[in-house]
Amino acid sequence: MHIKRTFPRTQNILLLIQIIGDLGFVFSGLTLGYLIRFRTPLRYVGVEPEYTPFREYKPLLFIGTAFFVASFAYLKAYDGRLLLRPHRTFSILTKATLFWFAAFLGSSLALKFEPPVSRLFVTVSCVTTLIVVAAWRYAFSAWLQRSAFRDRIVQRVVLVGWSDEAAQVVHAIRGDRNHPYDVIGYLATKPEHTDERHGCPRLGVMGEMDAVMRKEHVDIAIVADFDLSTEDLLRTSDLCEQLYVQFKIMPSFFRIFVSSLRMQTISGVPVLGVEALAINSSLNAAIKRAVDVFGALVGLALTGPIMLVLMAMIKRESPGPAIYPQVRTGRHGRTFTIYKLRSMRLDAETAGAQWAVSGDPRRLRIGAFMRETNLDELTQFWNVLRGDMSLVGPRPERPELIAKFENPPMVRKSSWA
Between the N and C ends of the chain, which has fewer C-beta atoms within 10 Å? Predict the structure, then answer.
């Protein structure tokens, strides 16, 4: 018989300790940033600030600390599932630090803090605080993993039914020592499921669910049998609600884009589906576009001399334009002109558009080399810079060839054409 656990209360206490620790270590990181900025030779970099005693700067450090912890909370750094997984927390801390940089510096300029906030201090503090807080989080997680609290915050999972997806879940959870879940077994929903499966013990059958959940102190029930009837699903859901057990389902119709699944209601009817893709976020789209522009500029600068040499070799072997424009289909079916270094003879498509084949006789000698090395696609950095394409994305194809696809518009995944 298992001892009754105190999972919610223990998790909340540990999160409170984490918040208090964050407050202290963020303040320490900001203090270190102040010392580096004003008490080292760095004070002579840029415009030398007037000497500001620490006691006068301390209120700004308190305000900065509040901003920092608020940023952590806003980006969901205080999720109980992250207590044992500091490596996943680090990306959140990094985003929160960048968010803090913009929010704190912007607020200081708008509200005219006194004494004025040094921009170099804010920059240095981003680095020192991120390092200090990350070290504290890793140390706290390392202690937690070795303490008696670990068993109190790992949530006990029971699988209702069995499937290939259930086996994947078991392997994924048991393969990660610091996973916040622990699969304790499964409830059989089919007559042939009479024994242990993939090291996961059989706890009983559907009719024994109430007794099993009470005995094993289950925190989460995951339905893994896609063939359960609606009545069984409703019965399981109602029981979970009575016992304060989280109820989850492995959806059989959504094997991809799991992170994009959203629940909404249509005239009061709940509907689950792929709705908001990450790329549709304004912030994500802006970041992706900035990366594309920067990458395209760097790519054009680095490969420009190579393209000039290749163009000269193309014109020497086959007089005519060295750059070949071609219409392609992009996002939402919009067509655009793509630019490639010409790798074939000028009369290569007198019979119409067609795919290139191995040993294509239409290729130039230099064209065969360029296609093997993808050098004919260097000019597409220009398309990326214009916004026609992205450094990372699906392959745009020719409209006349798309018509031949069984599942248009794109089948090959590549950012180059």
Answer: N
